[in-house]
Amino acid sequence: MTVLSSASSFSSSLITFFLLFSSIITLTTSTSPTFIKFLNFSLQNLIYSSPSTPKPNFIITPTHASHIQDVVRCSKANGFQVRVRSGGHDYEGVSYVSDTPFVIVDLIHFRKVSVDVKDETSWVEAGATIGEVYYHISKHSDRHGFPAGVCPTVGVGGHISGGGMGFLMRKYGVAADNVLDAEIVDVNGKLLNRKSMGEDLFWAVRGGGGANFGVIVSWKIRLVRVLKVVTVFNVPIRLEEGATTLFFKWQNEAHRFHEDLFMRTIIQVKNPNANKTIEVLFNSIFFGTVEKLLPLMEKSFPELGLERINCMEMSWVNSTLHNAQLYGEPIEILLNRDHPKTYFKGKSDFVKKAISIADLDKIWKIMLDGDDKSPVLINDPFGGRMNEIAENEIPFPHRSDWKDGKKSPEYIDTIRRLHKYMGRHVSKSPRGAFLNYKDFDLGVNTDINGIGRYLKARNSWGAIYFKNNFERLAMVKNKVDPENFFWNQQSIPPLSSV
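^ that's the sequence the OP posted. Answer follows.
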Protein backbone atom coordinates (compact mmCIF):
# COMPACT_ATOMS: atom_id res chain seq x y z
CA MET A 1 0.00 0.00 0.00
CA THR A 2 1.23 3.49 -0.78
CA VAL A 3 -0.23 6.44 1.13
CA LEU A 4 0.16 9.67 -0.85
CA SER A 5 -1.29 13.16 -0.73
CA SER A 6 -0.24 14.38 -4.16
CA ALA A 7 2.06 13.51 -7.04
CA SER A 8 5.29 14.90 -8.46
CA SER A 9 8.26 13.53 -10.37
CA PHE A 10 9.71 12.54 -7.03
CA SER A 11 6.63 10.80 -5.70
CA SER A 12 5.99 9.16 -9.07
CA SER A 13 9.32 7.37 -8.91
CA LEU A 14 8.44 6.19 -5.41
CA ILE A 15 5.02 5.01 -6.55
CA THR A 16 6.57 2.86 -9.26
CA PHE A 17 8.89 1.15 -6.83
CA PHE A 18 6.49 0.62 -3.97
CA LEU A 19 3.64 -0.68 -6.12
CA LEU A 20 5.99 -3.18 -7.73
CA PHE A 21 7.09 -4.59 -4.39
CA SER A 22 3.82 -4.10 -2.43
CA SER A 23 5.72 -2.25 0.27
CA ILE A 24 4.27 0.11 2.87
CA ILE A 25 5.37 3.71 3.11
CA THR A 26 3.79 6.94 4.27
CA LEU A 27 4.70 9.96 2.18
CA THR A 28 3.24 13.23 3.46
CA THR A 29 3.41 16.32 1.26
CA SER A 30 3.34 19.99 2.19
CA THR A 31 -0.28 20.21 0.94
CA SER A 32 -1.52 17.49 3.28
CA PRO A 33 -3.80 18.64 6.14
CA THR A 34 -1.71 16.60 8.60
CA PHE A 35 1.63 17.91 7.32
CA ILE A 36 2.36 20.53 10.00
CA LYS A 37 1.21 18.28 12.84
CA PHE A 38 3.48 15.50 11.68
CA LEU A 39 6.38 17.86 11.00
CA ASN A 40 6.17 19.30 14.52
CA PHE A 41 5.65 15.99 16.33
CA SER A 42 9.37 15.32 16.86
CA LEU A 43 10.51 18.93 16.61
CA GLN A 44 12.00 19.98 19.97
CA ASN A 45 13.32 23.50 19.35
CA LEU A 46 10.37 25.84 18.78
CA ILE A 47 12.68 28.38 17.16
CA TYR A 48 12.19 26.29 14.00
CA SER A 49 8.41 25.99 14.21
CA SER A 50 7.54 29.44 12.85
CA PRO A 51 5.59 29.78 9.57
CA SER A 52 8.64 31.41 7.94
CA THR A 53 10.90 28.41 8.61
CA PRO A 54 11.56 26.51 5.34
CA LYS A 55 9.49 23.32 5.17
CA PRO A 56 10.27 20.00 3.47
CA ASN A 57 8.54 19.04 0.25
CA PHE A 58 7.90 15.58 1.63
CA ILE A 59 8.09 13.75 4.94
CA ILE A 60 8.76 10.06 4.45
CA THR A 61 8.43 7.45 7.19
CA PRO A 62 10.05 4.27 5.88
CA THR A 63 9.40 0.90 7.46
CA HIS A 64 12.19 -1.07 5.79
CA ALA A 65 15.81 -0.32 4.90
CA SER A 66 14.97 -0.74 1.20
CA HIS A 67 12.62 2.26 1.49
CA ILE A 68 15.51 4.42 2.71
CA GLN A 69 17.68 3.17 -0.15
CA ASP A 70 15.12 4.20 -2.74
CA VAL A 71 14.40 7.54 -1.09
CA VAL A 72 18.09 8.37 -1.35
CA ARG A 73 18.18 7.31 -5.01
CA CYS A 74 14.98 9.20 -5.87
CA SER A 75 16.07 12.33 -4.01
CA LYS A 76 19.42 12.38 -5.72
CA ALA A 77 17.83 11.89 -9.15
CA ASN A 78 15.24 14.64 -8.58
CA GLY A 79 17.42 17.29 -6.94
CA PHE A 80 16.16 17.01 -3.36
CA GLN A 81 18.34 17.13 -0.29
CA VAL A 82 17.78 14.43 2.33
CA ARG A 83 17.49 15.34 6.00
CA VAL A 84 17.28 12.49 8.51
CA ARG A 85 15.32 12.72 11.75
CA SER A 86 15.39 10.18 14.56
CA GLY A 87 14.47 11.98 17.80
CA GLY A 88 14.26 15.58 16.58
CA HIS A 89 16.56 17.07 19.23
CA ASP A 90 18.97 18.66 16.76
CA TYR A 91 19.95 21.96 18.42
CA GLU A 92 20.08 23.91 15.15
CA GLY A 93 17.25 22.09 13.36
CA VAL A 94 19.53 20.47 10.79
CA SER A 95 17.40 17.31 10.74
CA TYR A 96 14.28 19.17 9.63
CA VAL A 97 15.26 22.53 8.07
CA SER A 98 16.94 23.41 4.77
CA ASP A 99 16.98 26.43 2.45
CA THR A 100 16.86 24.23 -0.65
CA PRO A 101 14.18 21.70 -1.73
CA PHE A 102 14.43 18.76 0.64
CA VAL A 103 12.72 15.72 2.07
CA ILE A 104 12.73 14.48 5.65
CA VAL A 105 13.35 10.79 6.22
CA ASP A 106 11.70 10.32 9.61
CA LEU A 107 12.88 7.09 11.24
CA ILE A 108 10.05 6.89 13.76
CA HIS A 109 9.27 3.31 12.64
CA PHE A 110 12.91 2.22 12.99
CA ARG A 111 12.74 1.58 16.73
CA LYS A 112 13.57 -2.11 17.17
CA VAL A 113 15.99 -2.94 19.99
CA SER A 114 17.29 -6.54 20.00
CA VAL A 115 19.21 -7.48 23.14
CA ASP A 116 21.62 -10.43 23.37
CA VAL A 117 22.60 -10.69 27.03
CA LYS A 118 24.83 -13.74 26.47
CA ASP A 119 26.84 -11.90 23.83
CA GLU A 120 26.50 -8.59 25.75
CA THR A 121 25.46 -6.74 22.60
CA SER A 122 22.36 -5.14 21.12
CA TRP A 123 21.27 -4.10 17.64
CA VAL A 124 19.46 -0.78 17.92
CA GLU A 125 17.63 0.85 15.02
CA ALA A 126 18.47 4.51 14.50
CA GLY A 127 14.96 5.79 15.19
CA ALA A 128 14.87 4.35 18.72
CA THR A 129 15.25 6.76 21.61
CA ILE A 130 17.77 6.51 24.42
CA GLY A 131 14.88 5.75 26.76
CA GLU A 132 13.74 2.85 24.60
CA VAL A 133 17.26 1.43 24.61
CA TYR A 134 17.46 1.68 28.40
CA TYR A 135 14.02 0.11 28.78
CA HIS A 136 14.66 -2.90 26.56
CA ILE A 137 18.07 -3.60 28.11
CA SER A 138 16.48 -3.54 31.59
CA LYS A 139 13.80 -6.02 30.51
CA HIS A 140 16.50 -8.53 29.63
CA SER A 141 19.02 -7.87 32.42
CA ASP A 142 19.41 -5.85 35.61
CA ARG A 143 23.19 -6.16 35.33
CA HIS A 144 23.65 -4.43 31.97
CA GLY A 145 23.33 -0.89 30.68
CA PHE A 146 24.63 1.45 27.99
CA PRO A 147 26.64 4.69 28.35
CA ALA A 148 24.43 7.27 26.65
CA GLY A 149 22.77 10.56 27.54
CA VAL A 150 20.30 11.85 30.11
CA CYS A 151 17.23 12.88 28.10
CA PRO A 152 15.26 9.70 27.25
CA THR A 153 13.55 11.13 24.13
CA VAL A 154 16.80 11.78 22.23
CA GLY A 155 17.12 9.56 19.15
CA VAL A 156 20.10 7.22 19.05
CA GLY A 157 20.80 7.86 15.37
CA GLY A 158 22.14 11.35 15.97
CA HIS A 159 23.15 10.93 19.60
CA ILE A 160 25.62 8.11 19.00
CA SER A 161 26.91 9.49 15.71
CA GLY A 162 27.77 12.76 17.50
CA GLY A 163 29.62 11.04 20.33
CA GLY A 164 26.99 10.64 23.03
CA MET A 165 28.09 11.80 26.49
CA GLY A 166 26.36 10.65 29.66
CA PHE A 167 26.57 9.47 33.27
CA LEU A 168 28.56 6.30 32.48
CA MET A 169 31.32 7.88 30.39
CA ARG A 170 33.91 8.07 33.19
CA LYS A 171 33.60 4.29 33.54
CA TYR A 172 32.97 3.16 29.95
CA GLY A 173 33.60 6.10 27.59
CA VAL A 174 31.01 7.84 25.42
CA ALA A 175 28.29 6.03 23.48
CA ALA A 176 30.29 6.04 20.23
CA ASP A 177 33.19 4.31 21.99
CA ASN A 178 30.89 1.33 22.47
CA VAL A 179 29.69 0.77 18.89
CA LEU A 180 30.72 -2.57 17.36
CA ASP A 181 28.99 -2.42 13.97
CA ALA A 182 26.59 -0.22 12.03
CA GLU A 183 24.30 -0.24 9.01
CA ILE A 184 24.24 2.80 6.75
CA VAL A 185 22.65 3.67 3.41
CA ASP A 186 25.29 5.45 1.35
CA VAL A 187 24.95 8.11 -1.33
CA ASN A 188 24.36 5.44 -4.00
CA GLY A 189 21.54 3.83 -2.05
CA LYS A 190 23.61 0.83 -0.97
CA LEU A 191 23.03 -0.73 2.44
CA LEU A 192 26.41 -1.25 4.08
CA ASN A 193 27.64 -2.80 7.32
CA ARG A 194 31.03 -2.49 8.97
CA LYS A 195 32.65 -5.05 6.70
CA SER A 196 31.28 -3.64 3.45
CA MET A 197 31.69 0.05 4.35
CA GLY A 198 35.31 -0.37 5.45
CA GLU A 199 37.07 0.81 8.58
CA ASP A 200 37.50 4.43 7.43
CA LEU A 201 33.78 5.05 7.12
CA PHE A 202 33.05 3.02 10.25
CA TRP A 203 35.53 5.24 12.10
CA ALA A 204 33.90 8.40 10.72
CA VAL A 205 30.28 7.68 11.68
CA ARG A 206 31.18 7.02 15.35
CA GLY A 207 31.36 10.63 16.49
CA GLY A 208 31.76 12.38 13.14
CA GLY A 209 28.05 12.82 12.50
CA GLY A 210 26.46 9.94 10.60
CA ALA A 211 24.29 12.21 8.44
CA ASN A 212 27.46 13.64 6.88
CA PHE A 213 28.08 10.32 5.12
CA GLY A 214 24.69 8.65 4.61
CA VAL A 215 21.63 7.51 6.53
CA ILE A 216 22.36 5.51 9.68
CA VAL A 217 19.92 2.58 9.84
CA SER A 218 21.08 0.79 12.97
CA TRP A 219 23.90 0.40 15.48
CA LYS A 220 25.34 -2.70 17.09
CA ILE A 221 26.30 -1.58 20.58
CA ARG A 222 28.32 -3.15 23.38
CA LEU A 223 26.34 -3.59 26.59
CA VAL A 224 28.27 -2.59 29.69
CA ARG A 225 28.04 -4.19 33.09
CA VAL A 226 26.31 -2.37 35.94
CA LEU A 227 25.71 -3.34 39.54
CA LYS A 228 22.32 -4.45 40.78
CA VAL A 229 22.33 -1.46 43.14
CA VAL A 230 23.56 2.06 42.37
CA THR A 231 23.30 5.15 44.56
CA VAL A 232 22.19 8.61 43.43
CA PHE A 233 22.09 11.97 45.16
CA ASN A 234 21.21 15.61 44.47
CA VAL A 235 22.64 18.22 46.81
CA PRO A 236 21.73 21.88 46.06
CA ILE A 237 24.03 24.61 47.44
CA ARG A 238 23.34 28.34 47.01
CA LEU A 239 25.73 31.29 46.96
CA GLU A 240 24.90 32.26 50.53
CA GLU A 241 25.73 28.69 51.58
CA GLY A 242 29.20 28.70 50.03
CA ALA A 243 28.41 27.49 46.52
CA THR A 244 31.28 29.38 44.87
CA THR A 245 34.00 27.85 47.03
CA LEU A 246 32.45 24.41 46.74
CA PHE A 247 32.17 24.63 42.95
CA PHE A 248 35.79 25.77 42.73
CA LYS A 249 36.79 22.71 44.74
CA TRP A 250 34.65 20.47 42.51
CA GLN A 251 36.48 21.76 39.41
CA ASN A 252 39.79 20.61 40.83
CA GLU A 253 38.64 17.24 42.12
CA ALA A 254 35.73 15.76 40.09
CA HIS A 255 37.91 14.37 37.29
CA ARG A 256 40.08 12.63 39.90
CA PHE A 257 37.23 10.78 41.62
CA HIS A 258 37.08 7.00 41.38
CA GLU A 259 35.61 5.99 38.02
CA ASP A 260 32.59 4.49 39.83
CA LEU A 261 31.60 8.00 40.94
CA PHE A 262 30.20 10.50 38.44
CA MET A 263 29.27 13.90 39.85
CA ARG A 264 28.17 16.71 37.57
CA THR A 265 26.99 20.18 38.51
CA ILE A 266 23.96 22.09 37.24
CA ILE A 267 24.09 25.84 37.83
CA GLN A 268 21.06 28.09 37.50
CA VAL A 269 19.38 31.20 38.85
CA LYS A 270 16.86 30.70 41.64
CA ASN A 271 14.15 33.10 42.85
CA PRO A 272 14.16 35.11 39.59
CA ASN A 273 11.58 37.61 40.81
CA ALA A 274 12.94 38.39 44.28
CA ASN A 275 16.20 37.70 46.17
CA LYS A 276 17.82 36.24 43.07
CA THR A 277 20.68 33.86 43.75
CA ILE A 278 22.77 31.18 42.11
CA GLU A 279 22.25 27.52 42.96
CA VAL A 280 24.80 24.81 42.22
CA LEU A 281 23.23 21.35 42.16
CA PHE A 282 25.64 18.46 42.73
CA ASN A 283 24.01 15.66 40.72
CA SER A 284 25.62 12.22 41.03
CA ILE A 285 25.47 8.48 40.44
CA PHE A 286 27.72 5.94 42.18
CA PHE A 287 28.17 2.30 41.22
CA GLY A 288 27.60 0.73 44.59
CA THR A 289 25.74 1.02 47.87
CA VAL A 290 25.48 3.97 50.25
CA GLU A 291 27.81 2.13 52.65
CA LYS A 292 30.56 2.20 50.01
CA LEU A 293 29.77 5.72 48.78
CA LEU A 294 29.94 7.63 52.08
CA PRO A 295 33.55 6.69 52.98
CA LEU A 296 34.61 7.45 49.40
CA MET A 297 32.97 10.88 49.55
CA GLU A 298 34.55 11.58 52.93
CA LYS A 299 37.92 10.90 51.35
CA SER A 300 37.39 12.54 47.95
CA PHE A 301 35.02 15.45 48.57
CA PRO A 302 34.30 15.94 52.28
CA GLU A 303 33.42 19.61 51.74
CA LEU A 304 30.03 18.61 50.33
CA GLY A 305 29.04 17.07 53.66
CA LEU A 306 27.12 14.23 52.02
CA GLU A 307 24.90 12.28 54.42
CA ARG A 308 22.88 9.11 54.13
CA ILE A 309 19.66 11.12 54.04
CA ASN A 310 20.82 12.72 50.75
CA CYS A 311 21.21 9.35 49.04
CA MET A 312 18.89 6.84 47.37
CA GLU A 313 19.72 3.29 46.33
CA MET A 314 18.04 1.94 43.19
CA SER A 315 18.55 -0.12 40.06
CA TRP A 316 20.55 1.32 37.18
CA VAL A 317 17.48 1.73 34.97
CA ASN A 318 15.70 3.64 37.75
CA SER A 319 18.75 5.89 38.00
CA THR A 320 18.14 6.89 34.37
CA LEU A 321 14.65 7.98 35.41
CA HIS A 322 16.09 9.86 38.37
CA ASN A 323 18.61 11.71 36.20
CA ALA A 324 15.85 12.65 33.76
CA GLN A 325 13.70 13.97 36.64
CA LEU A 326 11.21 11.13 36.16
CA TYR A 327 11.89 9.16 39.33
CA GLY A 328 8.77 7.53 40.75
CA GLU A 329 7.29 6.97 37.31
CA PRO A 330 6.97 3.41 35.94
CA ILE A 331 9.90 2.47 33.70
CA GLU A 332 7.45 2.29 30.79
CA ILE A 333 7.69 6.09 30.67
CA LEU A 334 11.04 5.52 28.94
CA LEU A 335 9.00 4.45 25.91
CA ASN A 336 7.29 7.83 25.73
CA ARG A 337 8.60 9.84 22.77
CA ASP A 338 6.71 13.00 23.70
CA HIS A 339 8.89 15.75 25.16
CA PRO A 340 8.17 19.34 26.23
CA LYS A 341 8.97 21.67 23.38
CA THR A 342 10.83 24.90 24.15
CA TYR A 343 12.76 27.74 22.57
CA PHE A 344 16.43 27.21 23.32
CA LYS A 345 20.00 27.87 22.27
CA GLY A 346 22.80 25.47 23.22
CA LYS A 347 26.51 26.13 23.50
CA SER A 348 29.37 23.98 24.74
CA ASP A 349 33.03 24.19 25.62
CA PHE A 350 35.81 22.22 27.30
CA VAL A 351 37.54 23.70 30.32
CA LYS A 352 41.23 22.88 30.72
CA LYS A 353 41.84 24.31 34.18
CA ALA A 354 39.72 25.53 37.06
CA ILE A 355 38.09 28.94 36.76
CA SER A 356 39.17 31.18 39.63
CA ILE A 357 36.77 32.28 42.34
CA ALA A 358 37.06 35.90 41.16
CA ASP A 359 36.06 34.89 37.63
CA LEU A 360 33.26 32.67 38.93
CA ASP A 361 31.84 35.73 40.68
CA LYS A 362 31.85 37.55 37.34
CA ILE A 363 30.06 34.61 35.69
CA TRP A 364 27.41 34.63 38.41
CA LYS A 365 26.93 38.36 37.78
CA ILE A 366 26.31 37.78 34.08
CA MET A 367 23.74 35.12 34.93
CA LEU A 368 22.05 37.23 37.61
CA ASP A 369 21.94 40.29 35.34
CA GLY A 370 20.03 38.34 32.73
CA ASP A 371 16.28 38.36 32.25
CA ASP A 372 13.90 35.78 33.65
CA LYS A 373 15.20 33.33 31.03
CA SER A 374 18.71 33.05 32.48
CA PRO A 375 20.87 30.26 31.07
CA VAL A 376 21.59 26.95 32.75
CA LEU A 377 25.18 25.72 32.97
CA ILE A 378 25.62 21.94 32.96
CA ASN A 379 29.15 20.82 33.80
CA ASP A 380 30.26 17.20 33.24
CA PRO A 381 33.62 15.94 34.54
CA PHE A 382 35.82 13.64 32.51
CA GLY A 383 38.66 11.51 33.88
CA GLY A 384 38.51 7.76 34.45
CA ARG A 385 38.05 5.79 31.23
CA MET A 386 37.90 9.02 29.19
CA ASN A 387 41.58 9.66 29.91
CA GLU A 388 42.53 6.24 28.56
CA ILE A 389 41.07 6.64 25.06
CA ALA A 390 43.17 8.37 22.40
CA GLU A 391 41.84 11.54 20.76
CA ASN A 392 41.89 9.88 17.33
CA GLU A 393 40.34 6.57 18.37
CA ILE A 394 37.06 7.90 16.99
CA PRO A 395 36.26 11.40 15.61
CA PHE A 396 35.09 12.59 19.07
CA PRO A 397 38.43 14.01 20.30
CA HIS A 398 37.55 15.58 23.66
CA ARG A 399 38.94 13.37 26.38
CA SER A 400 40.83 14.78 29.37
CA ASP A 401 38.59 17.85 29.74
CA TRP A 402 35.22 18.62 31.26
CA LYS A 403 32.26 20.04 29.42
CA ASP A 404 30.49 23.28 30.23
CA GLY A 405 27.17 23.10 28.36
CA LYS A 406 24.77 26.01 28.36
CA LYS A 407 21.12 26.16 27.36
CA SER A 408 18.73 29.09 27.26
CA PRO A 409 14.96 28.60 27.05
CA GLU A 410 14.04 31.66 24.99
CA TYR A 411 16.40 34.63 24.87
CA ILE A 412 19.94 33.99 23.66
CA ASP A 413 21.72 37.32 24.28
CA THR A 414 22.75 36.38 27.81
CA ILE A 415 24.07 32.97 26.78
CA ARG A 416 26.15 34.47 23.97
CA ARG A 417 27.57 37.07 26.36
CA LEU A 418 28.37 34.34 28.86
CA HIS A 419 29.98 32.18 26.17
CA LYS A 420 32.12 35.10 25.05
CA TYR A 421 33.28 35.77 28.59
CA MET A 422 34.08 32.08 29.10
CA GLY A 423 36.49 32.28 26.16
CA ARG A 424 39.38 33.26 28.41
CA HIS A 425 38.93 30.18 30.62
CA VAL A 426 38.31 27.31 28.23
CA SER A 427 40.05 25.33 25.48
CA LYS A 428 42.03 27.35 22.94
CA SER A 429 43.80 26.88 19.57
CA PRO A 430 41.18 25.75 18.73
CA ARG A 431 38.40 26.37 21.16
CA GLY A 432 36.43 23.16 21.65
CA ALA A 433 32.76 22.33 21.25
CA PHE A 434 30.60 19.20 21.33
CA LEU A 435 28.98 18.10 18.06
CA ASN A 436 25.77 17.01 19.83
CA TYR A 437 25.50 20.65 20.99
CA LYS A 438 25.54 21.88 17.39
CA ASP A 439 26.05 25.65 17.22
CA PHE A 440 25.86 27.73 14.02
CA ASP A 441 27.44 30.68 15.85
CA LEU A 442 30.74 28.88 15.24
CA GLY A 443 30.33 29.25 11.48
CA VAL A 444 28.52 27.55 8.60
CA ASN A 445 29.40 26.15 5.20
CA THR A 446 29.53 28.43 2.16
CA ASP A 447 29.58 27.84 -1.59
CA ILE A 448 33.38 27.81 -1.76
CA ASN A 449 34.70 24.75 -3.62
CA GLY A 450 37.62 22.40 -3.13
CA ILE A 451 40.42 23.21 -0.73
CA GLY A 452 38.92 26.64 0.02
CA ARG A 453 35.70 25.04 1.25
CA TYR A 454 37.67 22.69 3.47
CA LEU A 455 39.81 25.45 4.93
CA LYS A 456 36.80 27.67 5.55
CA ALA A 457 35.06 24.87 7.47
CA ARG A 458 38.18 23.80 9.34
CA ASN A 459 39.00 27.30 10.49
CA SER A 460 35.49 28.03 11.74
CA TRP A 461 33.64 25.04 13.16
CA GLY A 462 35.58 21.98 11.93
CA ALA A 463 38.59 22.01 14.23
CA ILE A 464 36.40 23.17 17.13
CA TYR A 465 34.30 20.00 16.99
CA PHE A 466 36.93 17.53 15.81
CA LYS A 467 40.45 18.97 16.41
CA ASN A 468 42.97 17.12 14.20
CA ASN A 469 40.40 14.49 13.26
CA PHE A 470 38.68 16.93 10.89
CA GLU A 471 41.15 16.33 8.05
CA ARG A 472 40.60 12.57 8.13
CA LEU A 473 36.83 13.08 8.21
CA ALA A 474 37.07 15.26 5.08
CA MET A 475 39.14 12.61 3.33
CA VAL A 476 36.55 9.94 4.19
CA LYS A 477 33.81 12.26 2.93
CA ASN A 478 35.59 12.62 -0.41
CA LYS A 479 35.85 8.85 -0.67
CA VAL A 480 32.19 8.05 0.04
CA ASP A 481 30.36 11.25 -1.04
CA PRO A 482 32.64 13.28 -3.35
CA GLU A 483 29.75 15.31 -4.81
CA ASN A 484 28.67 16.37 -1.31
CA PHE A 485 25.10 15.13 -1.63
CA PHE A 486 24.71 14.82 2.14
CA TRP A 487 25.20 18.53 2.74
CA ASN A 488 24.07 20.81 5.55
CA GLN A 489 25.26 24.00 7.18
CA GLN A 490 27.93 22.13 9.16
CA SER A 491 28.44 18.97 7.13
CA ILE A 492 31.93 17.61 6.51
CA PRO A 493 33.27 18.93 3.16
CA PRO A 494 34.96 16.47 0.78
CA LEU A 495 38.72 16.80 0.50
CA SER A 496 40.73 14.85 -2.07
CA SER A 497 44.14 16.04 -0.94
CA VAL A 498 45.71 18.52 1.45
